[in-house]
């Protein structure tokens, strides 16, 4: 319930990427809690295997998990999303991006930023994180190359669909395989340069997980 | 888009900065000001616009500024409506407004809105309606304070909350008006009330989809139109939105239009929901792109 309390200053309202939660009005937090509870028992999300979890129990940072839709190059992958709740939630949309790298016209292959209308000017306060997750899954099934986030991927999608499918599937295999750890991804990256697995593991361990240093070790 | 120099997020960030600047420089709802202030504001204008403002000042002696953040119509309508009902409403009007407010959530849920997503906005709306009418706030059905909805146990032996005797005393009205103003100046409660008025507008569009379809352009369905133009905060309204909201609440609205077209030197008044029975007439001043609240002489 929206209780009257001390109004946040306009400066506090404008910094939408704050992660602390101390500046979030109680209303925003209560709303996220409500959504979180509803999501845990939501049949629609369960049947799609979409999951929502908390980061540090704060209710201002959450993590989403979406399985790659069947019949797409993302099939078989599990994609992690980072969700930031702005202070004036639900009047402003949640800030959502892919944490798992994905090759998709509407997602930046560099930063994971998503181009989706309901995360921007078509957000409505009656929408929820559930709406967002289901919409992102739908976007994975049906890219919108005319409203791209990543121009390179969008061009490839339009001009060479076969290559797009291959690249997207390769990225899914490399970055989004369930149970694949961050180290596995790095080792795969090193092995792709022509080194054998054992050497790559040793180099990565020596470099304490830093890929560039591991490469130096391998070439040394 | 990644291909242009500015991304959508840059544009949104820019829009947010503009909104913050507006927020820092103007209150959500101002204190009443004499309408002569408007003439001073446009003293450089020698065109028909100023003539129309003169016409406005001859009929309306004061006005309140409402923040120009894209929600001005809903905010102006909401505050003016509650003020009208508090000071000039009859007991019958107050009861009608109160009862339709209490019934509205179920109607919106029946139209497909998810209850837990509109509950907070409904609560805030009913709170301001209760404040303006003197009717008791209905007990909450669920306690959402922990985030986990728990049905609230009503004590069967406790007396139902009492309605204040109507009409309210002058002292009571003054106190309630200052409380209303405090709520309308206080986000996020104020946003919640504004958003609920948007939902009531969208609800009316949807229940009367056949009628409104004819007014909607670009080949959109009524639902698509609502999703784009009504349910989104800060999206400005057009006349059709005023038709819908005034009809949804059965509240007569008079909009006094001023612009610089010189076909007439008088401000044009348009009455929406002329036979509205839920409240005395709400008067709004329109300057291109913006609504404020007007008070007749």
UniProtKB/TrEMBL annotation, chain A:
Residue span of region Disordered: 1-25
Pfam families, per database record: UBA (PF00627), UQ_con (PF00179)
SUPFAM superfamilies to which the protein is assigned, alphabetical: UBA-like (SSF46934), UBC-like (SSF54495)
Active site location: 115
Cell cycle is among the record's keywords: no
Gene Ontology MF annotations: ATP binding; ubiquitin conjugating enzyme activity
Top-level taxon in the UniProt lineage: Eukaryota
Matching InterPro entries: UBA (IPR015940), UBA-like_sf (IPR009060), UBC (IPR000608), UBQ-conjugating_AS (IPR023313), UBQ-conjugating_enzyme/RWD (IPR016135)
Biased composition (Low complexity): 10-22
Domain UBA positions: 181-220
PROSITE patterns: UBA, UBC_1, UBC_2
Cross-referenced PANTHER family: UBIQUITIN-CONJUGATING ENZYME E2
Protein name: E2 ubiquitin-conjugating enzyme
Origin species: Capsaspora owczarzaki (strain ATCC 30864)
TrEMBL record, chain B:
InterPro entries in UniProt: OTU_dom (IPR003323), Otubain (IPR016615), Papain-like_cys_pep_sf (IPR038765), Peptidase_C65_otubain (IPR019400), Peptidase_C65_otubain_sub1 (IPR042468), Peptidase_C65_otubain_sub2 (IPR042467)
EC number: 3.4.19.12
Site label Interacts with free ubiquitin, positions: 257, 259, 286, 291
Keyword Metal-binding among record annotations: no
Active site (record annotation): 69, 72, 290
Cellular-component GO terms for this entry: nucleus
GO molecular function, one term: cysteine-type deubiquitinase activity
The keyword Protease is annotated on this UniProt entry: yes
Reaction catalysed by this enzyme: Thiol-dependent hydrolysis of ester, thioester, amide, peptide and isopeptide bonds formed by the C-terminal Gly of ubiquitin (a 76-residue protein attached to proteins as an intracellular targeting signal)
Domain OTU positions: 61-297
GO BP terms, alphabetized: negative regulation of double-strand break repair; protein K48-linked deubiquitination; proteolysis
Record keywords: Hydrolase, Protease, Thiol protease, Ubl conjugation pathway
A Pfam cross-reference name: Peptidase_C65
UniProt similarity note: Belongs to the peptidase C65 family.
Entry protein name: Ubiquitin thioesterase
Source species taxonomy: Eukaryota, Filasterea, Capsaspora
């Amino acid at each position: 319930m929206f209780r009257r309390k001390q109004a946040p200053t306009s400066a506090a309202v404008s910094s939408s990427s704050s992660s602390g939660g101390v500046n979030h009005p109680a209303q925003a937090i209560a709303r996220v809690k409500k959504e979180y509870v509803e999501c845990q028992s939501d049949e629609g999300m369960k049947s799609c295997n979409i999951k929502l979890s908390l980061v540090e129990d704060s209710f201002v940072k959450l993590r989403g998990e979406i399985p790659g839709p069947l019949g797409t190059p993302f099939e078989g992958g599990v994609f992690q999303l980072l969700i930031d709740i702005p202070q004036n939630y639900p009047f402003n949309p949640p800030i959502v991006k892919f944490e798992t790298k994905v090759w998709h016209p509407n997602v930046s292959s560099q930063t994971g930023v998503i181009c989706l209308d309901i995360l921007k000017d078509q957000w409505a306060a009656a929408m929820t994180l559930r709406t967002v997750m289901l919409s992102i899954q739908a976007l994975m099934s049906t890219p919108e190359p005319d409203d791209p986030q990543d121009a390179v991927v969008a061009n490839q999608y339009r001009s060479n669909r076969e290559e797009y499918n291959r690249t997207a599937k390769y990225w899914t295999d490399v970055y989004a395989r369930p149970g694949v750890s961050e180290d596995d991804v790095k080792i795969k990256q090193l092995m792709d340069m022509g080194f054998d697995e054992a050497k790559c593991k040793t180099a990565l361990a020596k470099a304490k997980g830093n890929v560039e240093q591991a490469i130096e070790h391998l070439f040394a | 888009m990644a291909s242009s120099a500015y991304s959508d997020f840059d544009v949104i960030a820019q829009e947010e900065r503009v909104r913050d600047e507006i927020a820092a420089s103007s209150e959500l709802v101002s204190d009443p000001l004499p309408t002569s202030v408007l003439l001073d504001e446009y003293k450089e204008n020698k065109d028909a616009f100023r003539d129309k403002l003169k016409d406005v000042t001859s009929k309306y002696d004061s006005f309140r500024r409402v923040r120009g953040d894209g929600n001005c119509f809903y905010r102006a309508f909401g505050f003016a409506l509650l003020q009208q009902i508090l000071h000039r409403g009859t007991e019958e009007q107050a009861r009608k407004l109160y009862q339709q407010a209490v019934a509205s959530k179920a109607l919106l849920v029946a139209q497909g809105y998810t209850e837990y997503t509109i509950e907070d906005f409904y609560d805030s709306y009913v709170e301001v309606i209760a404040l303006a009418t003197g009717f008791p706030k209905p007990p909450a059905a669920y306690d959402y304070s922990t985030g986990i909805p728990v049905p609230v146990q009503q004590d069967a032996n406790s007396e139902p909350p009492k309605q204040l005797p109507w009409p309210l005393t002058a002292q009571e009205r003054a106190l309630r008006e200052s409380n209303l103003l405090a709520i309308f100046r206080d986000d996020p409660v104020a946003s919640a009330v504004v958003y609920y008025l948007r939902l009531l507008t969208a609800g009316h569009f949807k229940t009367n989809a056949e009628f409104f379809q004819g007014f909607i352009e670009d080949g959109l369905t009524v639902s698509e139109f609502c999703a784009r133009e009504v349910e989104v905060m800060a999206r400005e309204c057009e006349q059709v939105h005023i038709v819908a909201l005034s009809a949804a609440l059965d509240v007569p609205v008079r909009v006094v239009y001023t612009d610089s077209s010189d076909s007439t030197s008088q401000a044009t008044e348009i009455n929406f929901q002329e036979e509205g029975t839920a409240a005395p007439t709400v008067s709004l001043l329109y300057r291109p792109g913006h609504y404020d609240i007007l008070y007749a002489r």
